[in-house]
Design a protein that fits this description.
8 helices; cell membrane; single chain; amino-acid transport; globular; ABC-type metal ion transport system, ATPase component; 238 residues; translocase; six-stranded mixed sheet; 36% helix; four-stranded antiparallel sheet; binds adenosine-5'-diphosphate
Length: 238
Amino acid sequence: MIQIKQLVKKYSSRQGQVVALDHVNLHISPGSIYGIIGLSGAGKSTLVRCLNLLEKPSGGEIIVAGQNLTALSSKELRKARQNIGMIFQHFYLLQSRTVAENIAFPLEIAGTPKKEISQRVKELLHLVGLEDKAAAYPAQLSGGQKQRVGIARALATKPQVLLCDEATSALDPQTTLSILNLLRDINQKLGLTIVMITHEMKVIKEICTDIAVIHEAHIVENGPVESVFIKPQSDIAR
Ligand code: ADP
Ligand code: ADP
């Protein structure tokens, strides 16, 4: 589903050049729940921004569903973005819009007909278990409910990939579990590929099928979760 080949990202700053990703290679199979873990400063956010096309790589390739993201026109780019849904630590919901209107937002941008939008929003509310909150505003919701709205919004355009950036880091342990269970259900029901960027090993152990450990711009370990955990754990992964 996702192939990252020899990905390099460099930033120039007053102190000189920072290499945030140094020849990163990853192969993420369709339907997997792929965890990417690393300490602060390892390069996780940079990888997310390259994957969701907010940042242009300095070198290498990212291929999603057979499409090379590093060689697209701006029109193709907009289309390719719809294939990658995103959820965030701080949810980024629009405060002046209701739950239903937040979920409808990406569909409005995509020019979906009104009737289709309301049907799709209904399905999505059902999927995340928030039918009774359609008319509520984000300020009236708990953290877990806000993230459910985030998930519904991310899935609105029927992406093949869901990219989760520290999606449970702002939630208490019990709410974290309920969100992880929802993500696992969605993975199984829709066959969606999920990429989880996190600094929390418990998230990886709970739901991930595969893991990559990123440290100082390099992937230092990766593979199916069972095989990575049998080996003596590196300090970074603990
Ligand atoms: P993480 O998300 O794992 O904390 P980041 O991707 O944010 O890591 O950062 C990786 C490295 O790149 C760090 O050394 C960071 O200081 C540097 N970096 C990130 N963004 C920028 C930027 N816009 N300009 C310069 N350096 C950056
Ligand atoms: P976190 O607190 O999860 O680390 P950040 O504030 O670092 O979140 O944001 C993660 C990335 O997502 C940033 O590159 C940011 O620009 C981007 N981002 C934030 N809001 C949106 C949005 N609504 N749509 C797309 N990208 C966003």
